[in-house]
Specification:
The protein is α/β, with parallel strands linked by helices. Helix content is about 30%, strand content about 30%. It starts with a strand and ends with a helix.
């Protein structure tokens, strides 16, 4: 698995906004959501289609429709900021949730909640988190989804560290990663540098 880095000018422009330390919660939340919507075009461009018979106001014809279920799974909290734009584009998608928090001593993820729709085995799962730092939360989420039957899992993030990318390559080799930027690395507190700061706090104004 090599990450797909989406170098679209609109995404780069919006990424600058969310990086800026003076961007307030409202603009940060709106821009994260916009980035997620733009990135979803790349992450879903190879979804299978099926031919369907329809009737326009003028004639019968054939069209194409998505041939499999889509499940959106944000990693709480920060992943919630990426849901709305993708759900607007794929309104029939089901939504699951994974709740993880970071142990501030070990930096390891700890689970506190998970809830998934049925039929993950036949669905494409879009796993959402703005940050791919150590990769621990993404792997823990991947493991939970695999245990629930998911086969096609695609991670959509905004910024990643090289360490996180390497970790996912090793432990989740069949999960494709879509990212807007790969940053310099992690600091001593395992935050991405230059990064975005704490995406959850910035989304919800909790710090």
């Amino acid at each position: 698995m090599n990450p797909i880095i989406i170098n679209h000018p609109l995404i780069k422009n919006k990424l600058t906004k969310v990086r800026h330390k003076d961007t307030d919660s409202k603009l940060f939340r709106e821009t994260v959501n916009e980035i997620a919507g733009l990135m979803s075009y790349e992450a879903t461009k190879d979804l299978p289609l099926e031919t369907v018979d329809i009737e326009t106001p003028l004639a019968k014809t054939q069209g194409e429709a998505l041939a499999r279920d889509i499940v959106i799974v944000p990693i709480l909290r920060a992943g919630l900021g990426m849901v709305d734009a993708i759900h607007m584009l794929i309104p029939h998608a089901k939504i699951g949730h994974i709740g993880l928090y970071r142990d501030e001593t070990t930096f390891a993820p700890a689970k506190y909640y998970s809830k998934f729709p049925l039929n993950l085995a036949g669905a494409t799962v879009l796993l959402l988190d703005p940050m791919l730092a150590t990769g621990g939360s993404a792997k823990a989420s991947y493991d939970m989804l695999k245990e629930a039957g998911a086969q096609d899992i695609r991670f959509i993030g905004i910024v990643a560290s090289p360490e996180g990318i390497d970790f996912i390559k090793k432990h989740c080799p069949d999960m494709q990663v879509y990212i807007a930027a790969v940053d310099q690395g992690l600091n001593d507190n395992k935050y991405i540098v230059p990064g975005l700061g704490d995406a959850g706090d910035r989304l919800f104004g909790t710090k």
